[in-house]
Batch of 4 targets.
Target 1
Amino acid sequence: MGVNLKKIIESGWTNFRRNSYLSFAATGIMALALILFLGLLSLQFLTSQVVSSLQEKIDISAYFKTDATEEQMLKIKSDLSVLPEVVNVIYTSRDQALSDFKARHIEDDLIQESLEQLDSNPLAASLNIKTRDSSQYASIAQFLENNSLRSVIDKINFYENKGVIERVENISGGIKGWGLVITLVLAFIAILVTFNTVRLTIFNQKQEIEIMRLVGASNWHIRGPYLAEGGLYGLFASVIALSIFYPSVYFVSDKITAFAPTVNIFGYFLVGVPQVVLMVTALGVLLGVASSYIAIRKHLKI
């Protein structure tokens, strides 16, 4: 069995070399489809990390009108503190807000001079609320909207932050959707090119196939080389795809980390090298063998 398999693979390799131009085209298109597939995996990882990072940073801040009394503001703080989903509520008075603002811009002389010229404190008092889970912020926003003292609240900034997350999710969803469509189209083209390459090989070897039939070769011996040929397309395509993908990820990883410090895409794919290599190779070989099998079923009647 081992000798037979070796001969079949050698015959498949011979077919691969004979159709050099078509083999190159089939392998190249299949490699492109696999690269796009890896790109989709990268995008999925990046999206989940960016959204997770945004969700960790998101909070709710309720800014009060200037005529709100401290008693009213502390009453709302007290109401929020007893909610089971709330972890922490920080009250910042107008004076404290101004002091914090000055401290943050202590080296900016223009801002310091502008503040000195103002007759009154332009900053509002606020409550900053943290919940146990980011999904609970919507209920907190609703609680503030329905609070009996809602009239003293000027603005709730949750809706602005929520919009950022929704935009990121919508953009990434659109990219992933189109990426999947393009990947499927390329996979179909790769199957079509491989199918036609194997079909051409079968037509060119009709005489050899007839001789093999006459000498009593088994169906496996006749069909095997074409399946091996398709598998080789997928194998080489996966090698090309991985050889392009990992250096590309390494190159862009630092740039992505500079934009999103919590995201290390190269480290993520480096840890999963065995799984990624196995998955991409298996997918490529499966794609090639499936294409060859379809061509054999249609054009090799034995």
Target 2
Amino acid sequence: MCVRRCLVGLTFCTCYLASYLTNKYVLSVLKFTYPTLFQGWQTLIGGLLLHVSWKLGWAEINSSSRSDVSTWLPASVLYVGIIYAGSRALSKLAIPVFLTLHNVAEVIICGHQKCFRKEKTSPAKICSALFLLAAAGCLPFNDSQFDPDGYFWAVIHLFCVGAYKILQKSWKPNALSDIDQQYLNYMFSVVLLAVASHPTGDLFSVPDFPFLYFYRFHGSCCASGILGFFLMLSTVKLKSLMAPGQCAAWIFFAKVETETPENFIAWIQEKRKPYRVWVLCLKPWNPTNKCNELQ
């Protein structure tokens, strides 16, 4: 059982890292900044894979009453807000910055439990929430690549995440399973994002995307949808096999692991910058030498 839990945890961490890096590549490197289409594609792939898994008996989706489905609709709207605002924010912010802001959603949940539900909250949890809030508050003053638009969408994203988790925790435990909830989220997101692609202008702007017919764009989009699906499945499995504390520890490890590559690359680039300048400037000048273009 312990080995099985470790395998599920490692699978979750791998999917978490790969999913974020793939999305970041599509959004920031290829600059496919059409969130209604990108997120619509991801949810379509996720919904199709989940439906196929259900038909093959690999996943269990229960038939839900209309009242359960209609009651869950506000959460599905928040889910669309999460993925749309998250996509807009991630396209402009570094992964460590985005995840730091994303963590502030826990402050909203903690505040709701303390102020509205009058639940007992341990001092350690309150201190943790305050530290998260302080870390996020210091970010704009220490971010060398500060982007107001990115922070704006990140704030919307974290509020949607907080509200979604509050609704999810207040939901009747036997009404809809986690898989049922995600299946409804996928279906609602595909429809809403497809409709929204017209008024947002994404549908008419995408033909101008320079990498539209490149294999690396197609491969990255397919990978993002598949990885998102496996991340969802591994998350559900993680929650079902482990206690909340163990699950939180694996999520924390996955976030640290995901932040590390970008931080390491930034550190290497900063360390190598003086060396690169000296090497380029010591070369004999010729028309193809770009030393004279250095600022």
Target 3
Amino acid sequence: MASSHDASQTSTADQATDGEILSAVLAGDADQYAVIVRRYRRALQNLAFSYLGDAQMAEDAVQEAFLNSFRWLHTYDSRYSFRTWLWRILLNVCHRLREKAKRQPVTTTTLTAGAAPSSPVLLESEVPCEALSRLIHSERRESVLKLLDRLSPIQAEAIRLRFFGEMKFQEIADAQGIGLPAAKARVRNGLLQLAKLIQNTCQELAEEIA
């Protein structure tokens, strides 16, 4: 059983900033990186799942991203956001796994709500369509993920970073190498386009049933 002293140390570490934790890791206290893993695992899992559509692949991608970030930590430039740097590593892993999956024989699988990581944080005020909000939070979330692939790659990435990766607009701008207004525009325009796709899909389903 962990002592109260150990619990106090864990609590203190959890309250430390990313910069303080990373400095400790680079100084030789590698165990401190576990705090980074606890802090960002959920958001990274949601982001990876939004790209890969498979819970196990998403978990593997997150594990690889954490391992790579730990291995390459000495290359991180502390003048910039660590979150953006870490998220970019994960995106590179996800892109590679998606390309690898495209080259492999396709197998049919059924996505269920239980297979996905926990629901992403969604800011209602930024969603132009109430139906879209419900879909992202519901068991039909996988339908939204499929529709994301019909957007332009940069719009889809911006939406994934914002609503699944829980990134701030400035972090999205940094990750995509654009200005803050452009990042906001990409998210909003992507959401509007996604809402249209959802509306069209629902109309097509209604016509099939009729």
Target 4
Amino acid sequence: MNKRKMYWRMVTSSILRRRSRVLIAVLAVAIGATTLSGLAAIAIDVPSQMAQEMRLYGANLVVVPSEKNDNLTDQTINRIDEVVKSSGSTLVGSAAFDYQPVSINDQPYVAAGTDIDAVKAINPYWYIEGEWPSADGQVLIGREIASTIDAKVGDSITVSQLAEGASSAAPQSGGQDASTAPGTTAMSGAPEIPEGSHMMPDGTIMKNSEMPGYDPSKNVDGIYVGDQPQSAQSGAPTTKKDAIEQLTQNKPTAPVAPGNGKGQAPDPVDTRDISLTVSGILETGGSEDGFLFMSTADMSQLTGKDTSYGVSEYSVAGQAEAVSALAKQINDAVDGVKASTVTRLTHSDEGVLTMLRSLMGMITIIVLALTMIGVSTTMMAVVAERRNEIGLRKALGAHSKSIVREFLGEGVMLGILGGAIGAVLGYLLAIVICLNVFHRTIAFHPLMGVITVLASVIIATLACLIPVRRALDVDPALVLRGE
């Protein structure tokens, strides 16, 4: 029997003779290895799983027309899709929106023509009372609109928009009508509108001073002019909200008849109307509660024009840096668009992952430190038990190096046993956590198992250094005298 075999035989027999104490040390190492292996497996797989889960909360990349273009064409959107696919990013879903100002019961709102199935794919978190629209002629309305017009699921509503070329406001200056020149009477058969009054859309006449938000400075030639949206600022919109405001501002919505405000009855207003059935009521707690969502076919029928999109949203699985890089790629590769990330969502992704990694790192460090303390305490007890044996070996001429090698060998054996057990238990722990949190399993990484065993060996070996030093301090003379 050579020295190496003899050495490992001594180490093994020493461990087997003290099974109870060694078992405690192995369990301490196994607990540390389980924590290390499990949290490491989660840290490797969770970012991708977290990215998938965060995609349930809506798009994280928005593309709007730049100052060069008024809208996004189908060709432009197809080009953007090609860039996204070629980038290697995982596209969860995308949806383009044609936002248009509309009116219901003479109240102005904003409607979005889109692919309803695509919207459903990128916004699975939306709470719908009723059902998503499944065919043309159906509409999804926000909770705010439903409350205002007292609409319920299954009701039929009429959505209106002024036809192309129709006017929704009275002329501001010089707007005399040929039939109502100064000194003439109002049109025959029309109700007389007193000076300083205004005819409401329902036909009632109200004094300008009684109008909500009345301001004398907003009266032009006796005509009440309500608050109008400000003109769009120059430059391309930078957010989805800015894009919607820019797309819908200064566009006529409610079918209010024009008139000169001096006794002239309202002229018939040319509007385009469409009757839609409310299939569901949307409630998100966000701005979506104030929108209508219909199919692009219904929107084209309402506007009388082909669909042209103002915003395209993308839900891309990836961390903040990857999504920002994709936005830059789109801006560089596609002319006439401005792509930007939804900061709230991308930062949420990164913030959650950073916090999760920090938490797992702290837990791992604490558990490994406790593992070292447990192993070191156990080995100290072993040294105390073997004090007479160590003293006798020294008295017989055993070198200190042989004693060090024997104790370190025991530490290596403890690390291998505890690490192997911990690697298996850690993977099972990671599966349980992922199934309960993300409802999916994770892959086993063999390299992670090897790293866990090596880390356990290192931890156990380091934990043996203090007990080894205590063993080297044993005085053979004192031991032989029984002191």
